[in-house]
Amino acid sequence: MALPQGLDVDGFVRQVLAEDLGSGGDVTSNATVAADARFTAEMNCRQAIVVAGLEVAAAFFRALDPDIELELLVDDGERAEHRTALMRLAGNARAMLAAERSALNTLQHLSGIATLTRRYVDAIEGTGAVLLDTRKTIPGLRELDKYAARMGGAHNHRMRLDDGVLIKDNHVAVCGGVAEAVRRARAANTGLLVQVEVDRIDQIQLALDAGADRLLLDNMDPAKLREAVRLVGGRVPLEASGGVTLETIRFLAETGIDFISVGRITQSAPAVDIGLDYAVSR
Questions:
Q1: What is the pLDDT of residue 196?
Q2: Is 146 assigned a catalytic role?
Q3: Which of 14, 168, 200, 235 is catalytic?
Q4: Contact 270, 116 (CB under 8 A)
Q5: Rounded-to-integer distance, Cα 145 and Cα 135, Å
Q6: pTM of the model as a whole
Q7: What are the residues whose beta carbons fall under 8 Å from the beta carbon of 155, sequence distance 6 or more?
Q8: Could you tell me which of 42, 46, 53, 48 has the C-alpha nearest to residue 111?
Q9: Residue 42, φ and ψ in degrees, nearest 5
Q10: Which of 41, 116, 149, 249 is the most buried (most CB within 10 A)?
Q11: pLDDT over 70 for what percent of the chain?
Q12: From the candidates 78, 88, 119, 136, which is the catalytic residue?
């Protein structure tokens, strides 16, 4: 799978390595490992995962040892069972040790997002509902976090604030109501679709009459979602959001809504367990 177009992988790697190496470098490896020592190693997953970020992880090793021999054994987006080898490496021992933690941290974080996302996608399989991510990402890692969500099977929603008009509850409060907020958004002629968040059934018709292109149904239970689906009658796409869990998402998807957005997949995904296991020293 291709990484996001325009993603500055080299810049990301430089920044992360600078954070980890500081001004003195890996003093432990430099003190204990000969400068010309070489190691071969495997990067293995220690639980079942969905892989995301393997090429980014590889970039850390290449940055510190341009001559490293490196073989990627799986593709991003693939399921990998416990003990699956993800990557084989052979190169300068000091460089590999210095890059190890940055590479693993990145891969564990991104694969954690992809793994949790796939669980949500699997939970709504066959319902017709599509899982969306949100802007609830780690600051500075949005492109990578959303890439990982995509590897897990979600669809990316807004990447940035200029990516779409999404009128939330605070916009509505400032404007004095749903209809006025939508009216102002339409009058701005941004060229973008206007989506508006509603948390009550009586706001739906007001939003539609004002020209909303899409509705976000916030924190509605399945009964209210079904009522909303009936009332809208397919005129605009409907998205459910708010407090969605693995235990509840299937019930929401079966109401007939089009999309479900889940902030947890990028905001709260636990890192998965991946290790770099050294095989041969010489």
A1: 98
A2: no
A3: 168
A4: yes
A5: 10
A6: 0.95
A7: 130, 131, 132, 133, 259
A8: 53
A9: -125, 140
A10: 149
A11: 99
A12: 136
